[in-house]
Amino acid sequence: MSSHSEDLLSAALAYHRLPRPGKLEIQAIKPLVNQRDLALAYSPGVAAACTEIAKDPAEAASLTARGNLVAVVSNGSAVLGLGNIGPLASKPVMEGKAVLFKKFAGIDVFDIEIAADTIERAVETVAALEPTFGGINLEDIKGPECFEIEAQLKERMKIPVFHDDQHGTAIIVGAAIVNGLLLNGKKLPEVKIVCSGAGAAAIACLNLLVSMGAQRKNIWVCDIDGVVHEGRNTLMDRWKAVYAQKTSARVLADVIGGADIFLGLSAPNVLTSEMVKSMADQPLVMALANPTPEIMPDEARKARPDAMICTGRSDFPNQVNNVLCFPFIFRGALDVGATGINEEMKHAAVEAIAQLARDPPSDAVAQGFDSGETQGFGPGSLIPSPFDPRLILRIAPAVAKAAMESGVATRPITNFEEYTALLERFAFRSGLVMKPVFAKAKTQPVRVIYAEGEDQRVLRATQVVLEEKLARPILVGRPSVVEARIKRFGLSIKAGQDFDLVNPEDDPRYRSYVQTYIDVAGRRGVTPEAARTVVRTNNTVIAALAVVRGEADAMICGVEGRYMSHLRHVREIIGFLPGVSDFAALAMMITSKGSYFIADTQVRPNPSAEELAEVASLAATHVQRFNMKPRVAFVSHSDFGSYDTDSSRKMRRATALLKEKHPELEADGEMQGDTALSAAARKLVLPHSNLEGDANILIMPNLDTANVAYQMIKTLADALPVGPILIGPARPAHILTPGVTARGVLNMTAVAAVEAQERAGRQQLG
């Protein structure tokens, strides 16, 4: 673990440094290409916007970015796991928070690190920012000062002020407790709650639970100085004193007996197995200290098999993670112009999160744990997965409605169906499309073999595959070379222990591999002599044979060499799915405006209409794995008959063939690129198009068009490519390109793993 941690730290520093320092940039969203644009954006045209806002301050929400702009503010006095490191050193954390806001909820953020070490200075500094921002997210400010800072700011400011360390944690804890009590049949006003820790998050959790119905007389708090009791003078403040009990008990062991809920926001290993045994029936153990909880889940479960357990870690079920709520609470608050975030809005968030956990899980969303207990609502699934794209669709509208009903909304939403539709489009445009694929891969790790096992990118990707538990790697490579390069690159993985290694120069299965090669490819011109040579020298052949023999579940190659050479071996050894005429390559492009799939970028030079329809149907299957609804556009220079050429007729016929064979798919064509990517443009050309919304699968008329579009989008849009995804092979096999990065290998590992899982599932059903 320590060596993996060192690898992570090294990788994190490189991530922050390269290719440009930091994680954020400011980008203009309006054109500024001529004198007219300049006159509109700045002088003299900007005066019109200024005048409108001066007359009516509410116009700032429609004329500036303020309504979607949040400040993440910290003085660096209590950075998670690092303590009081000061404002400058906290900046990477605040930038990270800004990225989460943007990626999860589309909210723009300025991170603001302030040199303010007193309550008065912090309040004055932040309060002065109100004209700039639509909301304030306080972060990593030590207690008890954070309580007073937030309270004063909420009193002075007419925009949402939210200390996420307090209330984000409290909301997730509240949702877990609601569902835990639902399962064990207990009532919140009646349960005994024992809390270890009395910092900002702990007190906020208790305050929220009291507002939900918990009784103060049933709440017992312990901190580093023991039980919080009446008459105690050390380490006390007015917020903690609310929970002081009249008691002679002095330590956690004295009060834990009979507790229904243990809430830990303190330090590692403070809760013992004996303490857990003394708790009430079906206890809820929330050991949230990070990275080492108050008690490890396996110890707690051994002591009390009937316990429901939550941690703050991602490698156990029921992770209490603030990212489940804070972006979406702000999304709802900003969208109605809320003047604050009140108890009603917090309660709405609690109920929305709790309800989502009780709903049937999304088909494409997995919890990311090996244990089956996380599938569906139950003790191992009290709160939703952070990978669930429905979070924004549930929390933001619930918070917005609560703001409206409680009278703090200045811009009420009039049509919630339209609002939810807007959120839904964002949820699948967020650039986080790999989340459900990674989560699904973790549920049932399969064996993925890498043909170029000596390559630096493959080795670095293997390290992360193991840390993320995405698959069981098998590398093809010479042991001495692999070992030397692992050492050179500072990796901690070991052959035979962390991954399997196939040595092409000396493998005991050599003869049987040769025979398998002759069996599958002997009728394609492969002689026994050639087979013996190839199996010694061609790593792609070795990887493909391992898949055919059932020794690997999926293969990845193409990091070195020519694409078509790898494709020839995959074709002759693995072959096609039943009914498929040939392979095709599907390239995924993750851009700032959404994720798009382009086909065929690598294989078929000039496919027929029948082939294009086949490619489209196969591509739709892959797109569904990303929790996206396939929307197919057959792209052409022609817009619904505006040209009558061989190419446009081909695309028209391909559309008709796909609709005939797969009427359930949303598809249309032939159409131009802008018509495919804009529903508004399409309505002008063909109001009754079969395709709703923006297309996400672009079927190109030939290889030239597809590959040029792919390369140009990758460069001009600074898109992150995933793939190429090879569609049509009888078993999962993917051929990358020499320009792929270690990150690209990692992404395709997850894609290949999920495909292999689904193949295995179909075989079991068959």
From TrEMBL:
Cofactor requirement: Mn(2+); Mg(2+)
Keywords on record: Metal-binding, Multifunctional enzyme, NADP, Oxidoreductase
Residues annotated as domain Malic enzyme N-terminal? 21-154
Tell me the CDD domains matching this sequence.
NAD_bind_2_malic_enz
Is this entry keyworded NADP?
Answer: yes
**Per UniProt, where does NADP(+) bind?**
V79, L80, G81, L82, G83, N84, I85, G86
Please give the name of this protein: Malic enzyme
Per the database record, which ranges form the Malic enzyme NAD-binding domain?
166-404
First and last residue of the signal peptide: none
Query: Which biological processes are named by the entry's GO terms?
Result: malate metabolic process
Share what the entry says about its subunit structure, partners included.
Homooctamer.
What species is given as this protein's source? Bradyrhizobium retamae
Entry binding sites for a divalent metal cation? E139, D140, D165, N290
